[in-house]
Structure formats: structure tokens, C-alpha cells
Specification:
With 346 residues, the chain is of the alpha/beta class. The protein folds into three domains: 1-90, Aminopeptidase (3-Layer(aba) Sandwich), CATH 3.40.630.30; 93-126, no CATH class; 131-339, 3-Layer(aba) Sandwich (Rossmann fold), CATH 3.40.50.620. Helices cover 37% and strands 21% of the residues. It has helices spanning 13-25, 72-86, 101-105, 128-136, 157-169, 187-197, 227-249, 263-275, 298-306, 319-325, 331-339; strands spanning 4-7, 36-41, 47-54, 57-63, 93-96, 110-115, 119-123, 145-150, 172-177, 204-208, 251-257, 282-286, 290-291, 294-295. The chain has a seven-stranded mixed sheet, with helices on both faces. It has a five-stranded parallel sheet with strand order 10-9-8-11-12, with helices on both faces. The protein has a two-stranded antiparallel ribbon with strand order 13-14. Strand 8, helix 5 and strand 9 form a beta-alpha-beta unit. Helix 9 (298-306) packs across helix 11 (331-339).
Length: 346
């Protein structure tokens, strides 16, 4: 009997224990965001290689040190690509250690960006990112252009204040809404509320972020040593990609909201203030809009909905956001927020 590859069921505690131990032996932590995992088992039922998926990304790879050089990683990646194809996902991404990048390049992946000594970001299309930037060039406008990237979970008067400020100081504002569905408010709703909340600002162009901007909620952390390294790695990788996106659009400034309470966003802003000027892009930090001495935030809005105090969000959000959340249409989203164990942003 030879090695066999198969899915690892969430109910298969023995296989999961083996996967956990193999990952730990190879210096990899199990990522919290996984939606499919597989393993290669030898004839004695021992796990000798593993890998996983989340969305359109491949992650959490490990091969037993005694079986390296046998092409097991190739088998795992091939299997995961077949699984992704069955889901209709053909454009795939890998985040990995820099020293592992050549292994994936040998399997047909192209490096898009890297944070030296920390991580490499690859895709299975040779010109995927360049084609994305070329498409953005059609939205380039004459004059001074700025960009904003936001989750808008949901769109508040704080977000509106940031966009207003950028729109007043620039000829064009490119507003990117993170398009991955990893938030309590679904992407389709977040995009719609951002569009409705800025509809009167005629120099604002709304964009879906696409696959080249990823939120901290789903950024893979399995190969980084601690929480701060994850945040900093994510920020530096994102800014490396953003530099090319800004170049395609002629963007010379990125507007961000001041962050008094979120550790993730606070660190991210600090990295932006250091890194963006090196790319010729100004980082404009805008003080938060306040109500009653407290900063308006999406976290506060979600917390109020969670606590059953829906009416109290009204002074914190544009009329379009209020109209949505107070309507029967939003019941499933309100329920998801009420039932969530964590609505605040870390």
C-alpha cells in the first residue's frame, strides 16, 4: 500500500491531531482561517504532508522532514488546486516564507511582492497583478488624486468625514472597499452603503479592492512568530502592492483615519506614515469625527446593534445606512451582529 492523499474532515480528531503536530514540528502554526485541509498518509496511516485552503488562497503547508525531496508538496498543491477548480476558483494565491517561495515558483506561481526576510506573496497567473494595474489605469484622471482603503463595516459618518476631507483637497478620490467577505456586514451591503453615502461627492470613484488588498481578519499568520509581526508583515506587504496601484492611478496621497483604540489599525497607520513617503505618496492622517466627545467608529455601531440599541446608531451613520439597518431587509445582518461573540475591532 502506497501513500494516499485525502481531505481531513473537521470531525477526524486523530488526523487533525497529526496535522497539528506536523505543523508544529515544521515551525508552522495552524491558521485560524481554513475552509479545507488535506493530508498525505503513509501506509501506516501516519500523516507525512498537509496543506489547506481559505477562499482563493493556499496556506498551512508542512512536509515531514524525513520525506522531503519526494515531491509531496507538489502532490498537496496539485490536490488543492483541483479542489479550488471544483469550487470555480482558478486564480489562486499563496503567502509563504521567503525561503519557501522558490518551491511554489517551481509549481507555476509568480511572486507579486515580498517583505524581505518575512514573507512572499505569489499568484498562479504570470501577469495577474500587472493586468489588474493596467485595468485601473482607465480610471486615472487629470489633476491631484488621492486614495482611501476601507472595510466600511458598516459605512458611518466617520467614514463619510474621511472621504469628504479627501474630496475637498483633491480633484479625484479613489475609494477602495475591501471586497473579501470576512466581515459581519457582507461585502455587497458594505459597498452599497459606501456608494449611497458618498453619492453626492462627484469626484469620488468607488472600486472593489479585488484580490490584491486583504484585510487583517484573513491575513495568513501561520508562518509569523507573533501578533505584532503579523500586523507589520501585513502592512508592509499591502503597502508594497499599493505603491503599484497608486502608480497606475496617479495617486499621490493616501488618506487614513486617526486610530485611538484599535491596536491593528494603529500599528498599520504607523507603518504607512513611515513607508508611503518613501514611495512618493503622502500619508494624510485625519482626526476622527466625534459625537459627544467620543470618536465615531464602525465598532461602536456594531456594538450598539449587538446590544439591541439600534435606535442609538442613527446619529452615527448617514441616512442611507440608517435606512438599511432599520429595514426588514437587514434582519439577517442584524441577527448575525447580535449573535456574534466579538463585534469590536482588535
Amino acid at each position: 500500500m502506497s501513500d494516499s492523499i485525502s481531505a481531513i474532515s473537521p470531525r477526524d480528531t486523530r488526523a487533525w491531531q497529526q496535522a497539528q503536530e506536523l505543523l508544529e514540528r515544521e515551525g508552522v502554526r495552524r491558521d485560524r482561517n481554513l475552509d479545507y485541509s488535506c493530508g498525505i498518509f503513509d501506509e501506516d496511516g501516519r500523516l507525512v504532508a498537509t496543506g489547506s485552503c481559505f477562499g482563493s488562497s493556499l496556506r498551512c503547508f508542512a512536509v515531514d522532514s524525513s520525506r522531503r525531496g519526494e515531491g509531496l508538496l507538489n502532490q498537496v498543491v496539485t490536490h488543492l488546486m483541483e479542489v479550488q477548480a471544483s469550487r470555480g476558483n482558478f486564480h489562486l494565491f499563496v503567502y509563504t516564507k521567503c525561503q519557501s517561495a522558490p518551491l511554489f515558483q517551481d509549481l507555476g506561481f509568480t511572486e507579486i511582492a515580498r517583505v524581505e526576510g518575512t514573507l512572499s506573496f505569489l499568484e498562479n497567473r504570470r501577469n495577474g497583478f500587472r493586468s489588474y494595474c493596467r485595468r485601473l489605469e482607465s480610471f486615472r484622471r487629470e489633476g491631484k488624486s488621492a486614495a482611501i482603503v476601507m472595510n466600511a463595516n458598516p459605512f458611518t459618518l466617520g467614514h463619510r468625514h474621511l472621504v469628504e476631507r479627501a474630496a475637498a483637497e483633491n480633484d479625484t478620490v479613489h475609494l477602495f472597499i475591501l471586497s473579501e467577505d470576512a466581515s459581519l456586514v457582507p461585502f455587497a451591503v458594505r459597498r452599497r452603503l459606501a456608494a449611497e453615502g458618498t453619492a453626492d461627492l462627484k469626484n469620488v470613484i468607488l472600486h472593489d479592492s479585488g484580490p490584491y488588498m486583504i484585510s487583517s481578519a484573513t491575513f495568513p499568520s501561520y508562518f509569523l512568530p507573533d501578533g505584532e509581526a503579523v500586523i507589520l508583515g501585513h502592512a508592509r506587504l499591502d503597502l508594497s502592492l499599493f505603491g503599484a496601484i497608486a502608480g497606475a492611478l496617479g495617486v499621490t496621497a493616501r488618506f487614513v483615519g486617526e486610530e485611538p483604540s484599535s491596536l491593528v489599525t494603529g500599528l498599520y497607520n504607523r507603518v504607512m506614515e513611515q513607508e508611503l513617503p518613501r514611495q512618493g505618496i503622502a500619508c494624510v492622517v485625519v482626526p476622527r469625527k466625534e459625537l459627544g466627545g467620543a470618536a465615531i467608529s464602525a465598532s461602536t455601531v456594531r456594538q450598539l446593534i449587538h446590544d439591541g440599541r439600534l435606535e442609538e446608531i442613527r446619529p452615527l451613520v448617514p441616512e442611507s445606512t440608517w435606512a438599511y439597518f432599520s429595514s426588514p431587509e437587514a434582519e439577517s445582518v442584524r441577527r448575525a451582529i447580535r449573535e456574534s461573540g466579538r463585534v469590536a475591532h482588535y
